[in-house]
Write a structure and sequence with these properties.
The chain is of the alpha/beta class. The chain is about 45% helix and about 10% strand. Strands 1-2-3 form a three-stranded parallel sheet, sandwiched between helices.
Length: about 120
């Protein structure tokens, strides 16, 4: 939900050749983008505080649609950690967090689930 963080992440992902399917600043927008994606993203970075639907609600809906999608929760709200994990998030990173920790969380998912693809092979 923070445009400066999103911009930083986009630059970081571009350097690392990590493909970004879509960006959403609103829970309902995130859900619609997910539904209308040509190919559902394998990994979703999710925040808790989003307008219209919170991240836990969006996570539940996404996982109902695509149970194989892996959600990494990023939130300053430590109190929602258990709820996020119970909703199906595979990891919870408390903000502020480093790009290194985000990259490590993504790498852990890629290593743990061999079918997960995040790299844009057109850029390699």
């Amino acid at each position: 939900d923070e445009k400066s963080l999103v911009s930083l992440l986009l630059n970081f992902f571009k350097i690392r050749h990590i493909e970004v399917c879509f960006i959403a600043y609103d829970g309902y927008e995130a859900l619609l983008n997910f539904i209308h994606c040509n190919a559902h993203p394998h990994i979703v970075l999710m925040d808790y505080r989003l307008p219209s639907m919170n991240g836990i609600e969006v996570t539940k809906e996404i996982l109902n649609i695509s149970p194989d999608t892996k959600v990494i929760f990023l939130s300053a709200d430590e109190g929602v950690r258990d709820s996020a994990l119970k909703a199906g998030a595979i990891n919870f990173l408390q903000k502020p967090t480093s790009l290194k920790d985000i990259a490590l969380a993504i790498e852990e998912v890629v290593e743990k689930f061999p079918g997960i693809k995040v790299y844009n092979t057109n850029d390699l």
